[in-house]
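Support case: user asked for a sample of complex input and structure output to validate their parser. Sending the pair below.
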Amino acid sequence: MKTVNFVRMTLPAKSVNEAYARVAAAALASQVDPTIEQMADIKTAVSEAVTNAIVHAYRGQEGGLVYITMRLMEDGSFIVSVRDRGCGIGDVRQAREPCFTTAPSEERSGMGFSIMEAFMDKLQVRSAPGRGTTVTMTKRLGR
Amino acid sequence: MNLKLLEEENVLHAVITGEIDHHNAVVLREKVDRQIAAMRPAGLVIDLSGVTFMDSSGLGFVMGRYRSMAGIGGQVTVKGATGRVETILQMSGAYRYVKLLDE
């Protein structure tokens, strides 16, 4: 399918960039006239994915990078992928279960993947321990 | 994100406005816990009516305060959540632990 528009960005894994990433995603999505709810869904899902990269993949260490690619497709869908070169996930199925978290002391609720799944139409997680994780999400936009 | 802490008859009100994400949940947690420790209130009311965005970090904040308050025998009440903020609280089952104040 044809890509109508895209944005590619690389951000340092700093928590202050969580807001930047979700606002950028909403700005691109806004080009195809989404509903307010769809915008909120995208902002929330992108915020979850980027937070995971910062908190879990890089475990708060400085120097890590988060790579984000966002595409608007011909059929009005929005595809976003969030990639890191962090620690990776050993068991993706377990990580996607509600309330599973490896960082309870940091008050992680373990709901990140569940929220991404609920708010987007499609969620794909690819990970290799020691090499990193790519989360790709699709949302159909329009009224 | 902005936080206002108000004391009313042994109940602490945390009125949050703006966006709650991982970045500012850390700040919220520190400030609210410090006040809980100093005041030891019987109840904590988290007012989310002015919150325009919240992800699972906000949920972590709410559940974390449930634990802080449970530690001193107090209760947590959430009020004013709308839209996706409310969706996240509902879908997580948070209302099994914290009370929802209907107005």
